[in-house]
Amino acid sequence: MPNLSSQPLAAETADSNNVYRWLLWVAAGSLLLRFWLSVSFPITGDEAFFYWWGVYPDWGYYDHPPMVGWVIALMRALLGDAVWAIRLPAVLLPLLVGWGLWLALKPFDRTRAAWAVLLFWLAPSNWLLMFITTDIPLIAWSVFSVAALMHAERREALDRRAYGLYALSGVLLGCAFLSKYFSAVLGLTYLVYFVLYRRQRWTGLLLLVLCAVPAALINLDYNMSHGWSNIMFNVYNRNADEVAAWSKPFTYLGMMFYLVTPAAAWVAWRQRMALAAAARQHRLLACLVLVPFVFFAILSAKKVIGLHWVLSFYPFGFVFLALALAPKQLATCAKGLAVFTALHVLVVAGLYTTHLDTWRTVKPLSRIYPQVIRSYQTAQILDQLSSPGIVLMADAYTPASIYGFERRSYMPVFGVGRFHARQDDMLVDFSVYQGKTIRIIMMAPPDLASYAPYFDAVRELKVTQSGVDFYAVEGSNFNYEAYRARVLGDIFKSFYNIPSFLPMTACPFCERYCGKVRCPG
Questions:
Q1: Nearest Cα residue to 315 out of 105, 174, 169, 155
Q2: Terminal-to-terminal C-alpha distance of the chain
Q3: Which of these, 64, 198, 228, 380, is most buried using a 10 Å CB contact count?
Q4: What pLDDT sits at residue 6?
C-alpha cells in the first residue's frame, strides 16, 4: 500500500491554532462577498441559458450532460427563480469543496488538511466566482470522488469497506460525468495511477469503473435519441475550425501561472525538491496534478484552453502544496495568496463604486457599455420593443437568454446561430410562428435584405436606452417554408452532419426539418 500519510506537524501549536482561526475568517468573509456579488450582479448570458435547462429538466441538453439543469431545477423548486437562488450552489461551492478536501485529508494529518483548505479558499476564484455553470457540479462531484478513492487506497486490505469506497468513488465519478465531459480526464488520471502504481488493486479500479457506467449509459441513450448533440458539439462542431498555433500553449501556461498565483508558483519553485519528494510519497495526488496538466498542455497545441476547463483539478494543487511544504513556507504562501486575492477584491470594489456614466465615457470600460446597459436595464429595453401580438426573438443566444430570463418566457434565436448553445434545436418548432409578426432584437443596425425572404414585409425599429441604440427587425407574416428551406437547411448542413456509424433512435431537429430521424445529406 502506498504511504499516503504526511510528515506530521506539531499538534495543537500556536501555528495550527492560527490556521483554524484563519479558516473561519476566510470562510465567512469569502462567503459574504460571493453572496453579495450573487445578489448585486446581473445574470450573464450563459447563466440565463442554463436557467432554461432548469425550467425544462431532461436527461441531457444540446451542449452538455444534464447535471447543472437538475441543480437549477432543484433551486427553483426550493427557493424560486431569483438570480441569487439559482446561483446559490455556486456561492456555496468553495465551502463544499473545502469540506471534501477536509474529509479526504484529515485521517492523514488534520493540520495539513486545514492548510490545504485554507490555501484553496484564499485563491481569488473562491472569493469572486459565483456564476452558476456546468463546472459547478463537476467540481463538487470530482472532489468527493477523489476523497472516496483516497480513503479506499488508505485501507491496507481489499475488504468490504475498501470495495465500498471504490464503488462510491465510481458513483461520484459518474455524477461528474453527468455534469461535463471533462470528468473523463479524471477517469484517465485514475487509470494512469492504477496502471503505474496500483496494478495489484485492479479489482478496485474495475468496480469503480462499473459503478460509473450507468451515468455513461444515461448519456449514451440521450445522445442516441437527440441526434448525438453532445458528441457533435464537443467532438466535431466546436473543433472544425481549430488550427495549431504556438501562441496557444504559451497562453495555457500563462493561464496556469495566474491560477496557481504568483505567490504559490514562487514558493513551489523555491521548494521544488520538497515537491518532488512529496510526489514520490503521494502518488495519487501527484497524478491528480500532473496528468490533467499534461493532458491540457497537449490539447493546447490546437485549442485555446478555457480557464474553467481546469477548475475541477484546481483544488488538488493546493492539497499537494499543503502536504509538501513546511509550516513556514505554507504561511508565506498563504500570505502571498491573501495579497493577490485582496488586489482582485479591490478591483471589483472599485468597479462597484462607478456609475453608468463612467462606463459610457471612460475607456476601456466604454467598450462594453452597451452590454452593461443590456444587462442592467433589460426590462426597460423590452418595454420599448414589446407590443401585443408581436413575437420577440433575438439574433444570438446571449441576448435571447437574457431577454427571455427577464420575461420568464423562452425567447428563440432567429437565424442560423453558432455551433454552441443550440438548445433551440431541441425546444423550438418554428412552424408555430407561421403567419405571425416577429421582432428580432439586435445591437447593430440590421441588413433588412437578409430578413426579407422570410416575411411579406420588413422594417427597422430603433430604440434608445441610456444613450445606447438597440435595433429590431419587424417582419410581418412569417413564411415558415422559406425559413425551413434556407435557415434550417443551413443549420442541418452545418451542425447535423452526423456520422452514419452512430446509431440513432430519434433526433428532434431532424424530425422537424425533414420528418425523419436521419435526414438525407
A1: 105
A2: 56
A3: 64
A4: 44
Q: Give the separation between CA 322 and CA 17, rounded to whole angstroms.
A: 16
What are residue 473's DSSP bridge partners?
A: 440, 460
Query: Is 305 within 8 Å of 247 (Cβ atoms)?
Result: no
Give how far the C-alpha of residue 37 lies from the chain's centroid of Cα atoms, to the nearest Å: 18
Average pLDDT of 90-108?
95
CA 7 to chain centroid: 36
- The mean per-residue pLDDT over the stretch 311-331 comes to 94
Q: Cβ–Cβ contacts within 10 Å for residue 452, how many?
A: 14
**Using omega within 30 degrees of 0 as the cis cutoff, is the peptide bond preceding 520 cis?**
no
In the sheet that holds 457-465, the strands lie side by side as 390-394, 437-442, 468-476, 457-465
| Size of the chain, expressed as the number of residues it contains | 521
How do the domains of the chain map onto residue ranges?
14-350, 373-496
3-state secondary structure of 464: strand
Helix axes 183-197, 135-154, angle to 10 degrees: 20
At 240, the pLDDT band (50, 70, 90 cuts) reads confident
**Looking at residue 12, what is its pLDDT?**
44
CA distance 174 to 170: 6
* Range list of H helices, 305-420: 314-324, 327-352, 356-361, 369-376, 378-385, 397-407
Phi and psi torsions of 463, nearest 5°: -130, 160
| Cell reading at 81 | 427563480
Three-class DSSP category at 226: coil
The residue-averaged pLDDT of 214-222 equals 97
- Quick one: pLDDT band at residue 222, thresholds 50, 70, 90? very high
- The x, y and z cell numbers of residue 332, run together, are 508565506
Residues 346, 521: Cα–Cα separation, whole Å: 55
Residue 12 backbone zone (phi > 0: left; psi -120 to 50: alpha; other: beta): left
Strand partners, 394: 413, 441
Residue 134 pLDDT more than 50? yes
Which one, of 350, 401, 395, lies nearest residue 55 by Cα?
Answer: 401
